[in-house]
Amino acid sequence: MATEVKVPTLGESITEATLGQWLKMPGDAVKVDEPIASLETDKVAIEVPSPVEGVMGDQLVAVGDTVAVGAAIARIESGSGMPAQPQAQQAVPAEVPVNPEGAGENVELRAGEAEDADSPHLTLSPAVRRIVLEHHLDPSRIKGTGKDGRLTKDDVLAAAAKAREAPAAAPPPPPSAAAPPPPPPRPSSGERREERVRMTRLRQTVARRLKEAQNTAALLTTFNDVDMTAVMEARSRYKDLFEKKHGIRLGFMSFFVKGAVLAARDVPSVNAYIEGEEIVYHDYVDVSVAVSAPNGLVVPVIRDAQALSFAEVEKTIAEFGRRAKEGSLTMADMEGGTFTISNGGVFGSLLSTPIINPPQSAVLGMHRIEERPVVRDGQVVVRPMMYLALSYDHRLVDGREAVTFLVRMKEALEDPTRLLIDL
After folding, report:
1. What's the rounded Cα separation, in Å, for the pair 172 and 138?
2. Is residue 197 included in any domain, yes or no?
3. Active site residue 282
4. Do both 351 and 408 map to the same domain?
5. Other residues' Cβ atoms within 10 Å of the Cβ of residue 120
6. 114 band by pLDDT with thresholds 50, 70 and 90
7. Model confidence at 258: pLDDT above 50
8. From CA 84, how far away is CA 263, in angstroms rounded?
9. Are 253 and 396 members of one domain?
């Protein structure tokens, strides 16, 4: 008797997803709650578990197909499944060289080009696939220690560490039947090529929401600069004690989050949004923090930032960064948010005009710290300066309020004592 596997509930207001990858092939043994497929939603990847134990049966949809919540995507048959294939596992060499020439290639395609493309360890879970892509590894050269020889995160991380420790001048490994084919010859002069790649659901959602913000809001950006001397001195003075006491490093983001909370008290419209013909004000500040993930930018939310300490803010951000890298953020982590902070400075940005995250009315853009000459007390001195940008919906936030918000941020960052005594 066959049991249908259906698309689970994906989150509030999300009714469909795209089948990103099959984690089980027909004939594979399946345990209860073992993931059989990975779905791509507008924000995160979600694994679909098996409701029963048995054997993977028919796959009712193909990779890339759009599926609705509640739709059947596969069947699980009763039985014990196909036995493991030891010969295919023995053919996998233990050496795992880094392949710089393969950077940016589709790992699934490279695995499929191997001689034994049906070897079970080449079925990668989303977390494993992200690590393989990040370190530019060839999964067909990694020996899996999971069930039926499948790759685990520990296998890939160990392979990446081994590749980093290998001498740079070490000769390449001898070619094998499972090695990927050599790169194609360079096109002759005058030959041009194109490649079409389907946009992921995440990228489609980002594009749609950004355009929605431009079409709906009256966007405007105002700028200010801030002398980061006091913040940098505070970090330098207390970073060791802070890490020893709280177990987390003291970063810049906690200063900016607390500064935004302080400024939002004086300018509540920055922390509000328009809903129909009404303005919704909040007596709390849920800060959306832009975090870079393997599949694109995600924006998890620091809840009740006004009630958190510096250490709690830093721990929350660090946890978001770790989970974004692993691909384990959930819909609940990214829902809501009343104000956004985007740190382009970590990528070297000097100045930008960020776009608001609807339905929010404002976003703060941080940029790189750069030593510049400034005048202090009639003298030209060199100080570590950062440009701040506040993009806002002019329908709700007036120019005076936007400038006031940035001035409050500047005052708090140039004199961090204000953050402690609520000035």
Report:
1. 14
2. no
3. no
4. yes
5. 22
6. very low
7. yes
8. 61
9. yes
394 carries an active-site annotation: yes
Catalytic option among 135, 394, 415, 422: 394
The catalytic position among 225, 246, 282, 398 is: 398
The residue to which tokens 């050269």 are assigned? 141
CB 383 within 8 Å of CB 374: yes
- Angle, CA of 410, 414 and 415, to the nearest 5°: 115
Least confident of 17-21, 120-124, 243-247, 257-261: 120-124
H or E segment and range at residue 40: strand 35-40
Give dist(CA 248, CA 100) in Å, integer. 33
The tokens for 223 are 């700028």
Distance of CA 26 to the CA centre of its chain: 31
Name the phi and psi angles at 314, rounded to 5.
-65, -40
Amino acid at 91: A
Tell me: do 304 and 358 sit in the same domain. Answer: yes
* DSSP H helical ranges for 247-290: 253-266
Domain boundary among the residues 51, 77, 103 is at 77
The token pair at 209 is 């929401």
Q: Kindly tell me if the per-residue pLDDT of 164 is higher than 70.
A: yes
> pLDDT band at residue 86, thresholds of 50, 70 and 90?
very low
CB 42 within 8 A of CB 13: no
Of 365, 318, 316, the residue nearest 342 (C-alpha): 365
Q: What is the CATH number of the domain that holds 407?
A: 3.30.559.10
Question: 287 in a domain, yes or no?
Answer: yes
397 contact partners, CB below 8 Å, separation of at least 6: 267, 269, 270, 361, 362
State residue 69's pLDDT score. 84
Tell me the two tokens of residue 215: 């079409």
pLDDT of residue 351: 93
Kindly report, residue by residue over 341-364, the tens digit of the pLDDT. Answer: 999 888 889 999 999 988 899 999
